[in-house]
Structure formats: structure tokens, C-alpha cells
């Protein structure tokens, strides 16, 4: 990363201001074209942070406007150190920026907040104090506990999307998110020692979710906050961010092999739909049902391949050409069917099993084999 700015904001400054004192805080603020907000933000932070709380502010900036210059100018009136990491080649979006900041931050406490004043700076000392009071590793500023609200979530559409996302996320991680009423919040304090930056794979906006699921903080506290209107400019979130969020959920949920196998199975089940539709179409067009079965199966295979490429093994596609992956995947999927029959014959003939349990067992066995084969033969480097 290139660190920009003059004097106060230089390279050496960033290292030397890293504060390891107990109770000290680094405020990490991701910015993407927020030139019109940073002055007011730093002003309110200055007003809010008491002089007894050692504080430094670290902007991680992916802007294409004059945000770094606006920060440098506004920082001159700040009593605490302000640094900027500017990324010329941003990866991971908002979450990637925050992780970049986590690597550089040295204080015992790290507060992450937005630059647009939707997160009240006055709450920063309170978040840290709540952590110190309770031995919590993570303190979440929540819109969904008594005293909090999402007043600044503009429009019924955004409220509905936010509610659905919260509900889905909590359903997917009932244990890891226990005690977090607002896993979609972008405003929180986390203890430096609870963060293992190397294991993180941020993808888009939901950096709190990433930290809560992958770092497993021991204890979580919550503080209510009112999500206000933006001070200036507009949200940087796009429809594309919604797709990223779903991929992020899948990646977090399928981090373990059993969970991946489960997802693989669920995707496989959805493949019956195109398979049966194709069978219906082909036999309807006059094709004999046996060749039609074989052709229709390829529709299911293609569907499964697409979903698996887009969702499950998205990050493991690079080491093989796509045509190679298609070939191997299709081979495994069809071998599954071919293997099933002799396996059933073996279970019934040699082991004396009933036909139905034998079939179920054979399906299970070929499924596990197909999953293991797909992981190792198609998607392993
Ligand atoms: N460095 C960097 N890179 N910063 C970014 C990027 C990026 O790609 N995208 C957005 N930001 C910065 C913005 O400049 C802002 O400071 C902050 O991240 C939040 O971006 P907004 O665009 O204002 O987000 P929002 O208001 O739609 O969403 C906020 O509220 C949601 C809850 O409804 C965020 O806090 C979300 O995390 C939160 O879920
Ligand atoms: Mn915002």
C-alpha cells in the first residue's frame, strides 16, 4: 500500500504512532470518495474523544476523488495522529480496506466506523469503555437493542433488504452470532489480540460478520446506536454488493469440509429440476426415454457445474482451464450414475441387503465419492 500525505501522514509516522498502551484505540475508517465528509467527521471525533483516551485515526482509502487531500487538510486541526493508507489497487472492497487497516493498527482497541457520519463519533469512547468494563473482545454498536434505531436507513426497500439479510445471516450462523443482534452493523470495537488478520478473507461490506465468524471473539457486548442520515454524498453500495454479500455468506458457511459437502449436496438436489425439465421436453419431442435420460442428465450436470463454479469453488478455479474443469466435472457426475448400478448389485448380491437400503447406501457412497473427487480432481491446485 502507498501511504500518502505530508508530515503528519508520512510512512514513519504510521509506524511510530502505533500505540500499544492499554485502553488505547485506533479508529479505522474506510473511505471511498468521502471528501465532503472527512472534515466534519474529524471535527466530531475531536469533540468526542477525551484527552485521557490515547487515540489515532487511520483512514484506508480507495477513493478516486480528493479524499486523501481533504483528510490531510482537516487533520491539521486534530489533537491526535491521523494517517492514510491509500490503495491504488483495492481488493476486497470495504472489508478488504478494513483488514488492511487491522494489519497496520497497533493499539489495544480497534474501532471500525464509516466516514459519512451515519455512525455517531460520540460513541467511540463508549464502545471502548464497554469492552474494558466487561472483558468482552468485541463490542458491537447495534441498531436493534433498546435505545438503538435505524432511522437513517432510507426507504422501505432498504429496511426490507436489511431485515432479510439480518434474518438470513443469523439463521446461517446461530452459534457464532449468539449475542450479536446486529451482525450487519459496520460500527464496532474489537480487541487487537482477538484479531487474526491472516485468516481473514473479506469480501465486500460485512466486515463485522467476517470477524465474528472467523475470529470467534470470546465474549461480545453491545451498545445501542442510532444509525443516522448521511452527512454528505450518497451510499457507495450497489446491486453488485448484494451478490458479493451472498458469496461472502457461502464462503463463510462452507469453510469446513462437511459444510462444503452439505452445500454440494444441496446444489446437486436443485439439479433435478433442469434434469426433469429436459427429460420432459426431449421425450415430448419424440425421443426414446433411454437416450433422453442420458441427454437430460447433462442438463442437470451443467446446472450443477455453474452453481458450483459461481458459489462453492469460486476461488479455486484458477489452476485449471475452464474446459478442463467442465470435462472432469462431467466425467465424475456421469461416473456416479454408472458406478451406482454395480454397487447396488454388490450390496444385494454379496452382502444380502434389501434393494431399497442398498440403493440408498449406494447413492450415499457415490455422492461422497463424487464430492471428494470434485474437490480433489477438479478444484485442487
Ligand atoms: N476503502 C473503501 N473501499 N471504503 C469503502 C468502500 C471501498 O470499496 N466502499 C465503501 N466504503 C466506505 C464509505 O466511504 C463509507 O465510509 C463506508 O465505507 C460505508 O459506506 P456506505 O456506502 O456509506 O455504506 P452504507 O451506508 O450503504 O452501509 C453502511 O450501513 C450498513 C447498515 O445498513 C455500512 O456500515 C454497512 O457495513 C452496514 O451494513
Ligand atoms: Mn453510509
Automatic annotation (TrEMBL):
Query: According to its record, how does it sit in the membrane?
Result: Multi-pass membrane protein
Q: Which residues belong to any copy of the GtrA/DPMS transmembrane domain?
A: 264-378
What sequence ranges are listed for the domain Glycosyltransferase 2-like? 26-195
* Keywords recorded for this protein, A-Z: Glycosyltransferase, Membrane, Transferase, Transmembrane, Transmembrane helix
- What Pfam families does the database record attribute to this sequence? Glycos_transf_2, GtrA_DPMS_TM
Give the residue spans that cross the bilayer: 261-282, 294-314, 326-348, 360-380
Q: Which domain of life is it from?
A: Bacteria
Q: Which InterPro entries match?
A: DPM1-like (IPR039528), Glyco_trans_2-like (IPR001173), GtrA_DPMS_TM (IPR007267), Nucleotide-diphossugar_trans (IPR029044)
Note whether Nucleus occurs among the keywords: no
- Family note: Belongs to the glycosyltransferase 2 family.
This protein is called what? Glycosyltransferase family 2 protein
Task: State the organism named in the record.
Answer: Streptomyces niveus
Amino acid at each position: 500500500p502507498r501511504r500518502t500525505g505530508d508530515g503528519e501522514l508520512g510512512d514513519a509516522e504510521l509506524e511510530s504512532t502505533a500505540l500499544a498502551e492499554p485502553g488505547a484505540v485506533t479508529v479505522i475508517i474506510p473511505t471511498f470518495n468521502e471528501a465532503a465528509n472527512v472534515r466534519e467527521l474529524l471535527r466530531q471525533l475531536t469533540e468526542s474523544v477525551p484527552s485521557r483516551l490515547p487515540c489515532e485515526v487511520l483512514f484506508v482509502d480507495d477513493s478516486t476523488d480528493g479524499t486523501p487531500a481533504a483528510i490531510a487538510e482537516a487533520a491539521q486541526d486534530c489533537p491526535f495522529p491521523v494517517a492514510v493508507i491509500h490503495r491504488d489497487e483495492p481488493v476486497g472492497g470495504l472489508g478488504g480496506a478494513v483488514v488492511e487497516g487491522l494489519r497496520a493498527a497497533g493499539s489495544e482497541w480497534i474501532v471500525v466506523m464509516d466516514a459519512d457520519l451515519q455512525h455517531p463519533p460520540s460513541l467511540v469512547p463508549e464502545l471502548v469503555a464497554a469492552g474494558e468494563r466487561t472483558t468482552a473482545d468485541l463490542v458491537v454498536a447495534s441498531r436493534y437493542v433498546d435505545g438503538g434505531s435505524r432511522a437513517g436507513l432510507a426507504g422501505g426497500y432498504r429496511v426490507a433488504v436489511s431485515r432479510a439479510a439480518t434474518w438470513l445471516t443469523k439463521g446461517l450462523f446461530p452459534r457464532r452470532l449468539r449475542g450479536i443482534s446486529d451482525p450487519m452493523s459496520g460500527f464496532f470495537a474489537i480487541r487487537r489480540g482477538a484479531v487474526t488478520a491472516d485468516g481473514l478473507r473479506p469480501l465486500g461490506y460485512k466486515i463485522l460478520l467476517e470477524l465474528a465468524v472467523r475470529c470467534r471473539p470470546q465474549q461480545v457486548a453491545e451498545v445501542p446506536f442510532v444509525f443516522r442520515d448521511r452527512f454528505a454524498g450518497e451510499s457507495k453500495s450497489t446491486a453488485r454488493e448484494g451478490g458479493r454479500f451472498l458469496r461472502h455468506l457461502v464462503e463463510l458457511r462452507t469453510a469446513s469440509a462437511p459444510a462444503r459437502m452439505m452445500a454440494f449436496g444441496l446444489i446437486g438436489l436443485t439439479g433435478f429440476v433442469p434434469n426433469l425439465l429436459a427429460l420432459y421436453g426431449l421425450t415430448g419431442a419424440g425421443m426414446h426415454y433411454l437416450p433422453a435420460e442420458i441427454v437430460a442428465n447433462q442438463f442437470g450436470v451443467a446446472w450443477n457445474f455453474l452453481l458450483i463454479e459461481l458459489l462453492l469453488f469460486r476461488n479455486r478455479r484458477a489452476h485449471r482451464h475452464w474446459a478442463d474443469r467442465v470435462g472432469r466435472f462431467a466425467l465424475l457426475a456421469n461416473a456416479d450414475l454408472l458406478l451406482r448400478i454395480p454397487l447396488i448389485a454388490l450390496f444385494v448380491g454379496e452382502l444380502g441387503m434389501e434393494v431399497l437400503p442398498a440403493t440408498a447406501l449406494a447413492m450415499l457412497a457415490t455422492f461422497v465419492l463424487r464430492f471428494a473427487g470434485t474437490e480433489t480432481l477438479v478444484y485442487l491446485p
